[in-house]
């Protein structure tokens, strides 16, 4: 299992969440950050290793407006200890 943290364009949030849900990712935590000249959202979710490349393509295609520095994806190995992306569950 992989833990994905993606920083994406805030204006693309809803489309990205909907597309990830069609791929079976039903637990997504989103944090939105606003500054005068910057809007970015942090997505956190888990996915299977076999789905990683497809998920990265979705984040790049839907989560960005096409600018080179419009997104960032971090992938970390989850050792199976985490049951939920939400710490209070």
Overview of this protein structure:
The protein has 89 residues and is an alpha+beta fold. 24% of the residues lie in helices and 35% in strands. The protein has two helices and four strands; from the N terminus they run βαββαβ. The protein has helices spanning 13-22, 52-62, and strands spanning 2-9, 29-35, 38-47, 72-77. Strands 2-3-1-4 form a four-stranded antiparallel beta sheet, with helices on one face. A hairpin with a 2-residue loop joins strand 2 and strand 3 (38-47). Helix 1 (13-22) packs antiparallel against helix 2.
The assigned structural class equals: alpha+beta
The number of distinct helices, counting runs of at least 4 residues, comes to 2
Measured by DSSP, the beta-strand proportion falls in: 25-35%
Number of E-state strands: 4
User: Roughly how much helix do the residues carry, as a percent range?
Assistant: 10-25%
The low-confidence parts are none
Q: Give helix and strand order, one letter per element, not per position.
A: EHEEHE
Draw up the topology in text:
Blueprint: E1 2-9, H1 13-22, E2 29-35, E3 38-47, H2 52-62, E4 72-77
Concise synopsis of the structure shown:
The protein has 89 residues and is an alpha+beta fold. It has helices at 13-22, 52-62; strands spanning 2-9, 29-35, 38-47, 72-77.
